[in-house]
Structure prediction request, 479 residues.
Amino acid sequence: MQSPQTLAEKVWNAHVVRHGEGEGEARQPDLIYIDLHLLHEVTSPQAFEGLRLAGRKLRRPDLTIATEDHNTPTLDIDKPIADLTSRTQIFTLRDNCKEFGVRLHSLGDKEQGIVHVVGPQLGLTQPGMTVVCGDSHTSTHGAFGALAFGIGTSEVEHVMATQSLSLKPFKTMSINVEGTLKPGVTSKDIILAVIAKIGTGGGQGYVLEYRGSAIRALSMDARMTICNMSIEAGARAGMIAPDETTFEYVKGRPHAPEGDDWDAAVDYWKTLQSDEGARFDNEVFLNADELEPFVTWGTNPGQGVSLSSNVPVPEDFEDENDRKACERALTYMGLTGGTPMKEIRVDTVFLGSCTNSRMEDLRAAAEIVKGREKDPQIRMIVVPGSARVRLEAEAEGLDKIFKDFGAEWRFAGCSMCLGMNPDQLAEGERCASTSNRNFEGRQGKGGRTHLVSPLVAAATAIRGTLASPSDIANTPVSA
Ligand SMILES: CC(C)[C@H](C(=O)O)[C@@H](O)C(=O)O
Ligand code: SF4
Prediction:
């Protein structure tokens, strides 16, 4: 009998074209088949150029899909793109996709949006697949039980040419989250707590498999938030075993299997779970009942605390490097150790990014701001993850709720997650952001980022200081 396998091992083994020879450390890489290759404008130009120089074609244009996201403006999308670099990037992608026969969703197209929002939404991302993209947050697609990971530009070229990749198997780590989340606590808080626990390097070389009753209870949108940020713990990928929630999400989407194919697919997908007794290289346990809204105070996603606690002081850390990192982060963030997190005043609230820009995120935030007043000094920007999310949100009237509240309702893209377009923080500006990275200068030179959930983002826009939904429960609501 075959020994018990983890979910990651099952998906891996189902895609081996050729096993690498040797044992242990000396083992050669396996050749892995790739089911879906996603492209965007930032990491594809050199790969296309490489193919062109070598006189090669794209091996499987039908398994390749591109969208414009990082450099796209979120205002005036019907006008020429003003920023020269952005315009060049986008036009290069358009030319390349035309030349190599790749389906592209351009600005203005109904299916345009952040690559990690678009794949699942179209039903392209399915359980048991191998999914790659020249983008670290490809881990998002692991929420479907796919083995999905970011690759470098030379690997992008390799996949374009061969539809395969040469890789050594990843180690496996199980992240068990048991219990029930309290109201106001979300999957964003789970993942921020996981990263604070294992550190930004804790997942290095691993595929993280999120398991346990708290994970099973999450919607697909919420699962994607968790898998999305696996990379912020240094992991290669994050996965969640597919279940009824997954099947229900995929069913009926444009690229989902139909009829008998659907039944056969679900039968197979049901086998995609870690076997009883499967051995993980590492295990982590977290109690969902104890979790509170979690926010970052520093300049990496691991520098986070419960919203109800204080900004740490360097002496809180035993390790000399952690102490130094704390000192440096406090200086950059303009914070004094010991300050209650809830007293930190912010200037901007950004609701968006591939972490938290799907329907459920927008609905949750809209429910909080509805009929309430925004703090007059706060600028709030709402950027749906895709054009389709924007349309759906408008059909539900969410745009109106946000606009009445005083927030800006934008077109889809990466936007202020990394400021490769005009959506940036000014020097010294402080932002409560639903994105995934709080590195120095990430949202604009000198900008200061606090990573938060959509609920905390919404409550913060009302109170003006970092806040949870329970903090604004007594603020007046108009009809
Ligand atoms: C531009 C791209 C290579 C990058 C990534 O890989 O993650 C970006 O999406 C990011 O979030 O920093
Ligand atoms: S939204 Fe942010 S994290 Fe996601 S792909 Fe775009 S830049 Fe990267």
About this structure: The chain has 15 helices and 19 strands. The pocket of iron/sulfur cluster (ligand 2) is lined by residues 69-70, 114, 116, 135, 137, 353-354, 414, 417-418, 435-436 (CB under 6 Å). The first helix runs from residue 7 to 13.
